[in-house]
Amino acid sequence: MRKFLMLMAVALVLPTLAGLAQAGERLKIGLALPTQQEERWVRDMHAMQAEADKYNVDLRIAIARNDQAQQNNQIDQLLSQGIHVLILAPHDGEGAATSVNKAHEDGIKVISYDRLIMGTDVDVYMSFDNVRVGELMGEWITKRVPKGDYILMSGAPTDNNAKLFKQGHMNFIQPLIDKGDIKVILDQPVIDWQPANAQRIVENALTLANNKVDAILAPNDGTASGAIAALRAQGLAGKIPVTGMDAELSAAQRIVQGTQSITVLKDTRKLGEEAIRLAIRIAKGEDISDAINGAVDNGTMEVSSVLLEAQVVDKDNIDAVLIESGYLKRSDVYGN
Length: 336
Fold this sequence. Notes:
Layout: H1 2-23, E1 28-33, H2 39-54, E2 58-63, H3 68-80, E3 85-88, H4 97-105, E4 109-113, E5 124-128, H5 130-144, E6 148-154, H6 160-179, E7 182-189, H7 195-208, E8 215-217, H8 221-233, H9 249-257, E9 263-265, H10 268-283, E10 294-297, E11 302-308, E12 311-313, H11 318-323, H12 330-334
Helix pairs in contact: 2-10, 3-4, 5-6, 7-8
């Protein structure tokens, strides 16, 4: 009965939104982000704000500072402001379900942005093929180091994407573990994706292995920076392959310097722009089936998904992929 009432509420509100759009009144879109401590989330926000400005959308932004309780409160405030659609990148994929349910009770549809919201009937999921993102890292490092001693890290346990990345990593790493070609020194998640936590993990692993390490799987650029800090303290920076993800400026600089081997570009400019455009279409009550290209299980349903492609970046293609595309400036990457 509750689901029926929620669906009826959505059905009733959509014609109103369409009428607003036709009358030329500004649409309000709520944007709830988990943090601005990582460069990629800053980039997302700027891209989304620019796209919203292009379409004269009133974008209401809330930053949770990696605190799910704070994010839930912020979303309550956004809902009270009369937003028409909510774009939600959760700090905690499971903890955000309550906010989705509240939005639905108000007849507001929710786009789960980059991180999948678990355990509820999410309207749309927008991200990258995150298992494939993990595979890109796992494939690269196992080709580079097919045998040896590995340190494995995964992302925050609260982030469902971390599980998908890990699945992708292990699609390539686990068969070599089973063969006995790869030995895992330490395999741990990085709480809140924090570089300091990654640094401690690698420090502990180096101690356990007496510095005899052949490869480090770091799940993003922040954790890669922590790993490299631990390696540098032992005089090993640049001597052990380290992966990463997000194509942050600092990661690009480390690739040029030789201390980080790769990053994976998930062009969040495109993701942010697409999210705003999709939110506008949803607010207007348009059929968005032409934008859907996948489905991802969130434990309750197969969520209709818009999944973009990612790309490995190393020292050989960094100019073509990151600089010539305008993603980063040459002077920032190379320092000249």
